[in-house]
Amino acid sequence: MSNLLIKIVFNGELKSVSSKFTLLQILEQEGYPIPPDSKDAERNETEHGKRYIAAVNQRIISADDYWQIRLQPNDTIDVLGVITGG
């Protein structure tokens, strides 16, 4: 399979990415690093210390599955900040 570019929408912005990209790869490319240990409670913190969750086509994806989700043409990826407290 060749490495074609596909168009996706990431946080409302149209992007072209490799057809081989996974959700994990686009998150890392966009500044949302995830440590190798997916069981780490702090795994979803950006460099600014904010927690987040990721959704593909309005479906929330478990952080444990980010590496398994292969992006498809026209996918919409939304990264949502998590606010805690009372």
UniProtKB/TrEMBL annotation:
Protein origin, superkingdom: Bacteria
One Pfam assignment: ThiS
InterPro entries to which the protein is assigned, alphabetical: Beta-grasp_dom_sf, Mopterin_synth/thiamin_S_b, ThiS/MoaD-like
Name of protein: Thiamine biosynthesis protein ThiS
Organism: Thalassolituus oleivorans MIL-1
